[in-house]
Amino acid sequence: MTASTWFDAFAAWLHQVFVVQFDVWVILGLVAQALFMMRFVVQWIASERVGRSIVPVAFWFFSIGGGLLLLVYSVIRQDPVFIAGQSLGLIIYFRNLYFIFREKKQARTEAETP
Question: Domain limits of the chain?
Answer without folding.
Answer: 23-112
